[in-house]
């Protein structure tokens, strides 16, 4: 006689009753995950189901940063040398990127900050980083997405040295492709667009394609 399986209390996968009983109601995979991480995941899933992750949190809105380059008039932006092996200019890379359907742009300022851009045919994400000041920010405008981005249009964060994908950007980081390119063109021309807020972000590791 086949045993009727029961749901794992955490991930709802079906498991044999004896396994659930031995693991306190959990499957063999979930029982290996520390309770702290399982609690974080539950809180993330709850926030996602309530739509809270599609808009900046109160903490993010209060964390608006002013890039250090904004107060300077003679800042220059160069290409990430580890990623761009050819002798190209920033303008050449931007022009080429605008003709591409998918890609990344990695720039470094003369003050040591990074501007990383991911884009596809629909959306773009602009990320500003300054490790010395501990700034890890994304560009937020009135046009950023506020409902789930489709998994086929979800943009990934990539390593600026090798371009290998790392984490998935949350939906709220995504803005229209044309605006993303406008932002990077203006920033590299020392004309920081006033309609952009640079919001600091925390852990984005729970984001998955088409989810978060």
Brief descriptors of the model:
elongated, seven-stranded antiparallel beta sheet, alpha+beta, 22% helix, 212 residues, two-stranded antiparallel ribbon, 22% strand
Please give a structural write-up:
It contains 5 helices and 11 strands, in the order ββαααβαβββββββαβ. The longest helix has 15 residues, at 35-49. 22% of the residues lie in helices and 22% in strands. It is of the alpha+beta class. It has helices spanning 17-22, 35-49, 58-61, 90-98, 177-188; strands at residues 6-7, 14-15, 77-79, 103-109, 114-119, 123-130, 135-140, 156-158, 165-168, 175-176, 197-200. Strands 3, 4, 5, 6, 7, 10 and 11 form a 7-stranded antiparallel beta sheet that branches. The protein has 2 domains: 6-49, no CATH class; 56-200, no CATH class.
Q: Please state the overall shape, judged from the principal axes of the Cα atoms.
A: elongated
**How many E-type strands?**
11
Count of discrete structural domains: 2
- What percentage of amino acids are in beta strands? 15-25%
Biggest β-sheet description: 7 strands, antiparallel
- Helix content percent band: 10-25%
Overall SS class: alpha+beta
- Which residue ranges are poorly predicted, with pLDDT under 50 across at least 5 consecutive positions? none
Please summarize what this structure is.
The chain has 5 helices and 11 strands; from the N terminus they run ββαααβαβββββββαβ. The protein has 212 residues and is an alpha+beta fold.
Could you give the topology of this structure?
Elements: E1 6-7, E2 14-15, H1 17-22, H2 35-49, H3 58-61, E3 77-79, H4 90-98, E4 103-109, E5 114-119, E6 123-130, E7 135-140, E8 156-158, E9 165-168, E10 175-176, H5 177-188, E11 197-200
Antiparallel strand pairs: 1-2, 3-4, 4-5, 5-6, 6-7, 6-10, 7-11, 8-9
């Amino acid at each position: 006689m086949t045993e009727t399986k029961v749901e794992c209390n955490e991930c709802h996968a079906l498991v044999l009753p004896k396994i659930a009983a031995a693991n306190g109601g959990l499957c063999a995979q979930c029982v290996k995950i520390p309770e702290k991480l399982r609690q974080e995941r539950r809180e993330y899933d709850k926030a996602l189901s309530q739509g809270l992750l599609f808009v900046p949190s109160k903490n993010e809105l209060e964390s608006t940063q002013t890039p250090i380059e904004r107060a300077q008039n003679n800042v220059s932006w160069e290409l990430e040398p580890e990623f761009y092996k050819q002798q190209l200019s920033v303008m050449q890379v931007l022009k080429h990127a605008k003709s591409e359907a998918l890609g990344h742009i990695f720039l470094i300022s003369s003050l040591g900050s990074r501007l990383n851009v991911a884009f596809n045919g629909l959306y773009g994400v602009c990320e500003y980083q300054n490790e010395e000041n501990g700034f890890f920010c994304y560009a937020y405008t009135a046009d950023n997405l506020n409902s789930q981005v489709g998994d086929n249009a979800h943009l990934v964060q990539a390593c600026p040295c090798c371009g290998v994908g790392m984490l998935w950007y949350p939906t709220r980081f995504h803005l229209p492709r044309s605006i993303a390119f406008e932002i990077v063109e203006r920033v590299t021309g020392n004309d920081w667009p006033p309609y952009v807020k640079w919001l600091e972000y925390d852990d984005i590791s729970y984001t998955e394609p088409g989810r978060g």
